[in-house]
Specification:
By secondary structure, chain A is of the alpha/beta class. Helix content of chain A is about 35%, strand content about 30%. Chain A is globular and about 70 Å long. Classes of the chains: A alpha/beta, B mainly alpha.
């Protein structure tokens, strides 16, 4: 059975602000979808629509059914703003949230320890949440999101505020959930995270979908017109070569050339290497970061 | 269906357990114990004082009189009279030493008895009455023997108007007592409502506004419905309230039972038991239902007020709209408690936002009968059901909107939100 989150013709106005404009995309099981966009592009509004927090026009279904209290049990949601109960202990907090997902206390309790180990949480079951560091509190909240084994995982900016080590722990658990067949959708404005773990991506700009597809397809759609080279040739000389539009200096003798046409690469290889050994010559599609900047830039024109 | 009830139970349980474990609840429950302990201590101290002062010599006076007169008075008031003092000289001396607080000297001049009292403080009323009664008896004898009357004449002369004193034990037509009971009941009612409304409104508003402000509610609303959350929270807090009432009742009855056995308080309790019973019976009837439903309404309104706050830091201010209502009701009820049959309190006793103050006041004042009370209670309950239904429908919007434009605009926005 396929678990698909299907969003079609999603439209939402806040007063006069057109927050979402005809948004269409699918999130499939066993795949990770990254929802990218600037602040205010409509990422959280999309999540809030999925979770039925707000009224919207259009259709959102999970396995063909509308999302309601019953389907909530299959959803794990991490809100953008992190928060836990003030006075509770680690165990009380996790058990309470799991109960709201219809997991009985005696189902949840034996699993907490494992999760804490997996996320390397400093503290034990009876630690007061207030006494934990911010990072550890964030991990507890992630555990709350994932412990009931949701089929659809929605994470709003999960990487914000995590150090690289903890970001890696999070990536691992997201990949693990994917391996278990979950459908995962998360928002981010850090393209590196998206590039690393996402299978698909959707980019929103002012409430409209500007990019939609698998990460590779999206990148290829922009053509392999970026060339990374390491050469003693000066910048000016490189600029004069045929097919080169712009030259960025990355480092000493390291450049990134923007090509007018991917086919120019063949000729350029000859001209730059001159038939000799060359340390680096790599022709690539633009990175998501660049695509992101480019797409964002379009609005300003 | 059963599965979905689990979530409701989880919310109720979480709310209830957290609140009942909180410091403020425990302190509030201990308050009556502290109050009762204070009463007991004060009672003990005054009891001991009274006991020790019984042996104090300064309760006595001296009596200087004919031995016949003195004998008959000492027979009656022996405790109050130091009969060892025989002369005025002795009496003056003893008075100086504070062994007695005064003395009475009885003299006979021209066949007339005269009593003169000299003392540091005024003479005990009972002793004076006995003395005068005795003296007039002796004066009568003297008068009779001086005028040689016949026995028939004496009989006629001795005719006196009769005074028969019937005092029904604690009858209802005892006006001043009845008023005391009314006043006591009214004061108790108003203060109970005022205090508990404040306490439970602030707890409810704070709990909910914190969960809203911290966005905890987003996690909850991605698990269950806003209606379940709203009703679950209210149920949890109502259970907490009922727990508190139960604790108070147990304390009240056990301390009453204890005090009516204890030596130092027995007589006090006996004297006042009627008073206490009347007040209790004034409150433990339909009025108790008014109190409970009034508090329930306060909790529902506070849960709504709590959802109108957008930031966690404002949680303490969340209850303000409800506090305003409570204070206005408090002032009005103090104003009208003795004038509760005028048109304003009459209207207020049916209006659901105020009826739980004014209908009990009017019923205690015997200005409304049980049917009027039931009608008002019925209106209140219907209003509560309607309000709960309406709020639970818009609660998601109230809890998830994040404007900060004052509670009234937030309310309008929240209602429109979905």
């Amino acid at each position: 059975m396929n678990f698909i989150l299907h969003i079609s013709k999603l439209d939402k106005y806040f007063d006069n602000l057109h927050a979402l404009n005809d948004v269409n995309f699918d999130a499939k099981d066993g795949r990770i979808l990254g929802l990218i966009g600037q602040n205010g592009a409509g990422k959280s509004t999309t999540f809030h629509s999925i979770l039925d927090f707000i009224k919207y026009n259009g259709e959102i279904t999970w396995n063909g059914n509308p999302i309601n209290e019953k389907t909530f049990d299959e959803i794990g949601y991490l809100p953008e703003e992190r928060s836990l109960m003030e006075k509770a202990t680690v165990q009380q907090q996790i058990v309470y949230f799991a109960k709201l997902k219809n997991r009985k206390a005696n189902w949840t309790k034996p699993r907490i320890k494992n999760w804490m180990k997996k996320f390397d949480v400093k503290g034990d079951l009876n630690s007061k949440l207030k006494s934990l560091s911010k990072g550890n509190q964030q991990k507890i909240q992630l555990i709350c999101t994932l412990i009931h084994e949701p089929k659809l995982i929605i994470l709003d900016e999960p990487f914000s505020g995590l150090d690289p080590v903890n970001a890696d722990l999070l990536k691992q658990s997201i990949l693990e959930a994917k391996a278990n067949g979950a459908t995962i959708i998360f928002s981010s404005h850090n393209m590196n995270n998206v590039e690393e773990i996402c299978d698909d991506l959707v980019m929103l700009r002012n409430g409209e979908v500007v990019l939609n597809g698998s990460v590779q397809a999206v990148r290829n759609q922009f053509g392999k017109n970026e060339l990374y080279v390491t050469t003693p040739m000066p910048k000016e000389e490189l600029r004069q070569l045929p097919g080169v539009e712009t030259v960025f200096v990355r480092d000493n003798e390291k450049y990134k050339l923007k090509l007018s046409n991917p086919d120019a690469g063949v000729e350029l290889f000859k001209l730059i290497s001159k038939g000799e050994y060359i340390e680096e010559f790599s022709q690539q599609p633009p990175s998501l970061d660049e695509i992101f900047r480019e797409k964002v830039g379009e609005t300003n024109e | 269906m059963v599965k979905l009830m689990n979530k409701f139970k989880a919310i109720v349980q979480e709310t209830y357990v957290n609140q009942v474990k909180s410091k403020s609840f425990i302190i509030l429950c201990l308050l009556p114990i502290i109050a009762i302990a204070l009463i007991v201590i004060v009672g003990l101290i005054s009891y001991q004082n009274a006991a020790s002062s019984g042996n104090d010599d300064t309760n006595q006076i001296a009596l200087i009189a004919d031995s016949g007169i003195k004998k008959s008075i000492v027979q009656k008031d022996g405790d109050s009279i130091d009969s060892s003092i025989k002369t005025e000289q002795q009496a003056k001396h003893k008075l100086k030493n504070d062994d007695i607080y005064g003395y009475v000297k009885v003299t006979k001049n021209n066949d007339k008895y005269t009593a003169k009292y000299i003392g540091n403080e005024s003479i005990d009323g009972g002793v004076r009455d006995d003395l005068m009664q005795n003296l007039s008896l002796h004066q009568n004898k003297l008068n009779l023997s001086n005028n040689n009357l016949t026995s028939e004449q004496i009989k006629k002369l001795s005719n006196k108007p009769s005074f028969y004193n019937y005092v029904k034990s604690r009858s209802n037509d005892n006006k001043s007592d009845d008023n005391d009971i009314k006043m006591g009941s009214l004061q108790l009612l108003i203060y109970i409502l005022y205090f508990f409304l404040f306490f439970y409104s602030s707890i409810t508003a704070t709990v909910i506004s914190k969960e809203k402000g911290s966005k905890l509610v987003e996690v909850i609303f991605s698990s269950t419905t806003a209606t379940k959350y709203f009703i679950g929270k209210i149920t949890g807090i109502v259970l907490m309230m009922l727990t508190q009432f139960a604790i108070y009742l147990i304390m009240l009855f056990s301390s009453y039972a204890f005090l009516s056995q204890a030596d130092f308080a027995k007589s006090f309790i006996k004297e006042n038991s009627n008073y206490v019973h009347q007040i209790v019976s004034n409150l433990f009837n339909i009025n108790l239902l008014f109190i409970i439903f009034g508090l329930l309404l306060g909790i529902i309104l506070s849960a709504t007020a709590g959802s109108l706050v957008s930031r966690r830091e404002d949680a303490n201010k969340a209850g303000q709209p409800v506090f305003m209502i409570v204070i206005i009701l408090f002032v009005l009820s103090i104003m009208f408690q003795n004038n509760s049959n005028s048109i304003i309190p009459k209207i207020l006793s049916y209006f659901p936002l105020s009826s739980y103050f004014f209908m009990p006041i009017r019923m205690i004042n015997n200005q409304a009968n049980i049917y009027e009370g039931l009608i008002s209670l019925f209106i209140l309950i219907i209003f509560i059901i309607g309000l709960t239904y309406f709020i639970s429908k818009v609660y998601k919007g109230l809890m998830l909107q994040n404007n900060n434009e004052g509670w009234f605009k937030n309310l309008i926005r929240g209602v429109k939100y979905r």
